[in-house]
User: Fold this.
Amino acid sequence: MSLLSAGSILLLLLFGESLGAPRSFSIDYKNDCFRKDGEEFRFISGGIHYFRIPRVYWKDRLLKMHMAGLNAIQTYIPWSFHEEIPGQFSFSGDRDLGHFLQVAQDIGLLVILRPGPYICAEWDMGGMPAWLLKKKDIKLRTSDPDYIAAVDRWMGKLLSTVKPFLYQNGGPIISVQVENEYGSYYACDHDYIRHLTKLFRSYLGNEVVLFTTDGPGISYIKCGSIQDVYATVDFGPGTNVNSEFYTGWLDHWGSPHSVISSTRVAKSLNEVLATGANVNMYMFIGGTTFGYWNGANIPYAPQPTSYDFNAPLTEAGDLTEKYFAIREVIKMYRKIPEGPIPPTTPKYAYGAVSMKKLQTISDSLKYLAFSGPVKSMYPLTFLDLNQALGFVLYRTTLPANCSTPTPLSSPLNGVHDRAYVSIDGVAVGILERDRVITINVTGNAGSQVDILVENMGRVNYGHQDFKDFKGLVTNLTLGNNTLAGWTMYSLSIDKAINEGVIKEKEATATDPPRPAALSLPTFYGGSFVIPDGIPDLPQDTYIKLPKWRKGQIWINGFNLGRYWPVRGPQVTLFVPANLLTTTAPNNVTILELERAPCSPGPCTVEFTNTPILNATAASHYKRHLELFSREDSLG
Ligand SMILES: *[C@@H]1O[C@H](CO)[C@@H](O)[C@H](O)[C@H]1NC(C)=O
Ligand SMILES: *[C@@H]1O[C@H](CO)[C@@H](O)[C@H](O)[C@H]1NC(C)=O
Ligand SMILES: *[C@@H]1O[C@H](CO)[C@@H](O)[C@H](O)[C@H]1NC(C)=O
Ligand SMILES: *[C@@H]1O[C@H](CO)[C@@H](O)[C@H](O)[C@H]1NC(C)=O
Ligand SMILES: *[C@@H]1O[C@H](CO)[C@@H](O)[C@H](O)[C@H]1NC(C)=O
Ligand SMILES: *[C@@H]1O[C@H](CO)[C@@H](O)[C@H](O)[C@H]1NC(C)=O
Assistant:
């Protein structure tokens, strides 16, 4: 509180001189600098994504950024997060952009806004809503009229929300990016960029500083930049604005955790600042990609739930050696605020929680697919079924007797992205995009084939068109037959978990024996009580899943994200305290897709006080892993 009012006083003092005079922010091309209220101005900014941090922690993270000596922050805006359903906009709770901007301003931070419509950002489809793909041949990020119509509607809503927060209107926003790294996209559609610029100007006015960001190099800048819009580059010295100075780097499942040393970051930051450049550190805090929102790179490599980024503030907002190293560098160029830095929030190890086996996906279809199944000769995609994220169950039958192992195959690599296959209720294998396109199966003609397909995140970056349809996007074959006669269940798993309708499985005599390597995708549930008599609980924690393999976790119905410790590098998931309650038992729900450690073995998850983000247990797995048991033997 006291820090906050100190921030406001500071703000008054800074702007005191110009009280009465209009606030202005502009580019002085002649002197190659920015001018704020007429004075030469240089920003030292840090990246923060409000959509990767729970709202209750926005103030804590922003204060820490302010105390590091930053005078500005930069954020993207993910369109898909605010318009999940066409025409229905959400700007409340963790999506309350206006509140975030207000908190930044109250603390005394200026804001550089990157509203897209495309943002990359390791976010599903680079922030564009998946429903755009309902028109299959849509040309994203071009003048395609259907794309433009959707962009105009969204930007109309967004830019009107943002307008009062512009610097010249009394708010913190000093500049707004048009598109994002457009120069690295094949389309090079100047009409599209001109349209966006006009659109931004029509809502935000002519004074606002618009800019583009591109990779270094003339070819990028040629297609990415536009007349009258300031061009900046992602990295490399030599210009006076560096929009993405990398403090760390992102991770992918199965690859080693990225680390950039504090010394290296501090040294290059010093070099950049010494040239007098404006800089944005990407990221200053990475945060968490909760739920299903992560993106992927190609060849298909999805990003994990943690977006820690090895940034100066950790995923949980903790102060690091890198934070202090950066602060020391900034100190040499700018007076940094006095006063205490908000401390690292305490973490609590709530300990082990036992989990009970609940129903399988197939058992609970009536709760998960309440709108009923859809039938079609050949498989439909997620979007054909009006589903954007999560899971769809595809069901058919074996067309022929397969008494000897017969290849079940996706010859065109059309499993997007991972398929858990069972025959007559027995798990038989996993197909995975770019990795496993064939498994052998046996069974009699007429046996039920259930294929649960997981969307692991849409590709968020590419030079070529990177439209990423999900589900079974091409036919599957069994031997020489094309599988046909599908029944598809669009699954509303989050809704069912929130309604508490997934129950314990009733034991039946006909339960198949548990196979060695794989089980059916199954829910597990457990709960824990926050201990009494310890002050300041609940506190933040991390959930660890010893011997669990791959799946999704919900805490009190909130979709925390994916876990995949057998592939790594992420082993623990951040559980912010705001998800927990002291007034009732806290519910943990897990959908384990491959095999739980339970019976035999302890059926527990563990809440610990230490994150593990750097364990790539399976980093040496074979690219075309065919038999599950081979991967199994690694662990
Ligand atoms: C499959 O094999 C069974 C005997 O195991 C036989 O009765 C049935 O006719 C066969 N079905 C087909 C479609 O070949
Ligand atoms: C399927 O079985 C055949 C015959 O046993 C074998 O040659 C082939 O390698 C197997 N394929 C896979 C993907 O396991
Ligand atoms: C599946 O195969 C059928 C018959 O060859 C074809 O008409 C259909 O377009 C294919 N579907 C997909 C998604 O490839
Ligand atoms: C598929 O067809 C080819 C030739 O038409 C035949 O040689 C082969 O045995 C068939 N495979 C299966 C699994 O039926
Ligand atoms: C946990 O689940 C139970 C049973 O569905 C429910 O009554 C309770 O409210 C849940 N607790 C929380 C904190 O959501
Ligand atoms: C993982 O990170 C921890 C904490 O920074 C460090 O102590 C440990 O050595 C790292 N492990 C690996 C395998 O890099």
Remarks:
- The longest helix spans residues 145-162.
- Residues 10 and 16 are 9 Å apart (CA to CA).
- Residues 1-18, 619-635 have pLDDT under 50 and may be disordered.
- The first strand starts at residue 25 and ends at 28.
